[in-house]
Amino acid sequence: QVFVCGDDVEAKQMVMNIARALGLTPLDKGSLLAAQEIENYPLQLFPMWKFPIFLSLGLTAFFFLYCLALDVIYVYIYEKNNFSFFIAITIPNRVCPVMALILLALVYLPGIFAAIIQLYRGTKYRRFPDWLDKWMLCRKQLGLIALAFAFLHAVFTLVTPMRAFVSWRTSKGIISQALNNKTEPLNTTNAWISDSYLALGILGFFLFVLLGITSLPSVSNNVNWREFRFVQVR
């Protein structure tokens, strides 16, 4: 995008036409009063990412502390079991999917609010409230952060069988069955539930990645509106 501002409408239109001829996308920023804001853009660091990042950090800290109190502190106080190692893998693997789903919901929630406001006003040509306008402008950033949390959840899940705690729990179950001279039969119902859960998780992650890829400008520019909407609504 090329930001253009000026008080002369004809001169500004000429510059915007030159920008289009060069394959760029001109964006009218208004009068010369916006010149200082445009000049400060190179000095800003990820201006559209501040709210999504701060929101993600705040929610992550809240859910992390909640899981820490529930799975580590509470168990240590009342059951005298030290599960502090849950901080490394178990708790992050619980926080990441929750964050991915919450942020994904925050991507589509403002669209619902916008539709309700337009129906209430009876027109789509009035500006949205400032809070909703800023929320809608940072939806792509929220979606990409949600995708990052989904990737982290997939990685944490893949390394789960390598953990010492999982190996200890498995060997403990085997030894317990051997000492009791009793083998637990396979519960096919639980097997179906577990496999279905994992299969749906893999499918959901694939669709999430596909949604993120089609949201990239370099990809979305190569699909028409109907193709883009087909992927987004799925």
From TrEMBL:
Query: What is the protein named?
Result: STEA4 Metalloreductase
Q: Which Pfam families match?
A: Ferric_reduct
Name a single GO cellular component.
plasma membrane
Give the similarity note.
Answer: Belongs to the STEAP family.
Q: Its topology with respect to the membrane?
A: Multi-pass membrane protein
Keywords associated with the record? Membrane, Transmembrane, Transmembrane helix
A GO molecular-function descriptor? ferric-chelate reductase (NADPH) activity
Q: Where in the cell is it found?
A: Membrane
Q: Please, one GO biological process term?
A: copper ion import
Where do the Ferric oxidoreductase domain residues begin and end? 98-232
Principal localization reads membrane
Q: Where are the transmembrane segments?
A: 53-78, 98-120, 141-159, 197-219
User: InterPro entries from the entry?
Assistant: Fe3_Rdtase_TM_dom, STEAP_metalloreductase
* Signal peptide as annotated in the record: none
